[in-house]
Amino acid sequence: MSRIAYVNGRYLPLAAASVNVEDRGYQFSDGVYEVCEVRDGRLVDERRHMARLKFSLSELRIAMPMSPASLSVVLHEVVRRNRVRWGIVYLQITRGVSRRDHAFPPAGTAPSIVVTARNLDLAGAEKMAGDGVAVISVPENRWERVDIKSVSLLPNVLAKQAAREQGAREAWFVDRDGRVTEGSSSNAWIVTRDGKVVTRQADHGILKGITRTVVLDALAAQGLKLEERAFTLEEAHAAREAFITSASQIVLPVVKIDGRPVGNGAPGLIASALRRDFHHYAELS
Ligand code: PDD
Predict the structure, then answer these.
(1) Rounded to the nearest whole angstrom, what is the distance from the C-alpha of residue 261 to the centroid of ligand 1?
(2) 98: pLDDT confidence band, cut at 50, 70 and 90?
């Protein structure tokens, strides 16, 4: 079965789906994106992802190319046409096509929109969660507005590749003060020896993950102790547990940081329980 993409109003086989070489996403990374988990063919937390999309677009002064209701139809249709059971739907909106010039294109230039979807390996993901993953640390070298979910991801790409080359799943960015901001494509969490769950406050310095928001709801509902503050790499090394969160990875236990075991070196109880219960707190549509 050939995969299908939605591109500017048309559903096309992936091989035929393309954008103009003067698309500003291609020329300048001038665009934003969202990734939603798909579970049993339904979208997880579509409402929150669409709210964040609106925020990213408005921060970059890119117009929303279609009504939220039409966009929702397109997202579900791309999932359906690709027969996604468990996987992701990817949405990208750029400032559109215009002769290359750094400044904004003429008023009225239509934003470009692309939607793709694909199945992921559920059994493989569950095995990975059962084993736990390794992370490495890398210096924070991104701009000051990473709360905008922009497609400009070069530092994230290089950090993820560094992780791969060291046999790790994720790279955690560490700022000049030795504090972890977040992962290259996930939010970072620890559980301290005295049982407090810690994740960085969501200011301009991290992406306010939708999975993060749902996990905060789950922690509150379960009466677990939470601290929204930056934690240092030293604290992470001394932690009882660590984990990462993102739409495609849900909650993934971290068992090694820079080659050193976290806690007893096995996935933590809190991380594993949060993963198990996550969809109880998420919305399906
Ligand atoms: N990444 N931080 C960064 C830098 C991210 O790229 C992501 C998501 C997150 C977690 O956000 P959420 O819980 O809303 O997925 C945090 C997506 C999945 C990606 O780039 O593929």
Answers:
(1) 24
(2) very high
Residue 215 Cα, ligand 1 centroid: separation in angstroms?
14
Tell me the domains of the chain and their CATH numbers: 4-120 (3.30.470.10), 125-281 (3.20.10.10)
Residue from 35, 48, 141 to probe ligand 1 pocket by mutation (most atoms less than 8 Å from CB): 35
Over residues 56-95, the pLDDT tens digits come to 999 999 999 999 999 999 999 999 999 999 999 999 999 9
CB of 185 shorter than 6 A to ligand 1: yes
Tokens 């709801």 identify what position? 217
- 163 contact partners, CB below 8 Å, separation of at least 6: 135, 136, 169, 170, 171, 184
> What is the distance of C-alpha 15 from the center of its chain?
26
Q: Cα(186) to centroid of ligand 1, in Å?
A: 5
At residue 126, φ and ψ (nearest 5 deg) are: -65, -40
pLDDT tens for each residue of 148-177: 999 999 999 999 999 999 999 999 999 999
Calculate the CA 228 to chain-centre distance. 19
pLDDT for 13:
97
